[in-house]
Predict the 3D structure of the following.
Amino acid sequence: MIRTPEALIPYMLLCACVAGGVLWSLSAEHPAAVSELHLTQLGGPFHLTDQTGHARSDAEYRGRYVLLYFGYTNCPDVCPTTLTQMQDALTRLGPKAKRIVPIFVTIDPARDTPKALGAYLRAFGPQFVGLSGTPAQTARIAKEYRVYYAKRPLEGGTYAMDHSGEVYLLGPDGQLVTFYDPPLDPAAWARDLGARVE
Ligand code: NI
């Protein structure tokens, strides 16, 4: 579950809600594998909108830790599972959880309006921040974190989103500390966070 820089693997797990997707590393559109990068090369500034309609930037979260996860509210299984596990891990962590801001960034801003994100995240607790942006803003933060996402048409004219499933931990300086791959065990996740968060 826990990756160190040395253990970074040359691919990202796709959301299991994805059927028929290709591994990220195999996509010609995304040739820069995470394994070739140091953690310090991932991440970067962002300007997005939260579920209350307020502008949010990465700079606002300096001094706190951030758990950053990318997904979409129509995801049938992995996104709600990951968010539930994140909520569970933060509960297990106890008082240190107050140092961490859990942020869900939608990679489906066409459907995930701030209002939709707010309604969705209420199930996971008031501490969750839901961020959305324009297609260009979304593409930028996804590129910074090497997040794969792609629209997959479904019968009936609707669509699903294929996407990678890592959860990123940012430190108080805004730099990436580590990332976590699903499947996530909330107890182990809480222990790891407890060891890293001061
Ligand atoms: Ni998902």
Remarks:
- Strands lie at 47-49, 55-57, 65-71, 100-106, 129-131, 149-153, 159-163, 167-170, 176-180.
- The chain has a mean pLDDT of 85.
